[in-house]
Amino acid sequence: GFEKGQVAFLAGGTGHPYFSTDTATALRAIEIGADVILAAKSIDGVYDSDPNVNPEAKKYDTLPISKIIDQALPSGKQLGVIDLASAVLCYENKMPMCIFGLSEENSIINCVNGKCTGTVITV
Description:
Helices cover 28% and strands 14% of the residues. It is of the alpha/beta class. The longest helix has 12 residues, at 21-32. The protein is globular and about 45 Å long.
């Protein structure tokens, strides 16, 4: 097992079609009993709309996973953060996450040290 204070870097997918890397991340984090998923993305967090299209888009500092699930349903406003399957896995297994920008300087180190400048997804 993992000792307290260890950080595991996981990369890759499941090797199965229709399963995203987000789903693989959620599955593996749950399997190893991780405390949190620190997800480095090309975008620096979760926004209320696409910041590439809308310069007025607002970034969430924190967001409940239930809102991501609600928004992923056809009737909701798509947040486009993680897919529904991985969001449901995280919700059902009480797996929080932090989504942050990979391109920011020291973003991984900062996030591991509890200084997430992205969006904290709560369960």
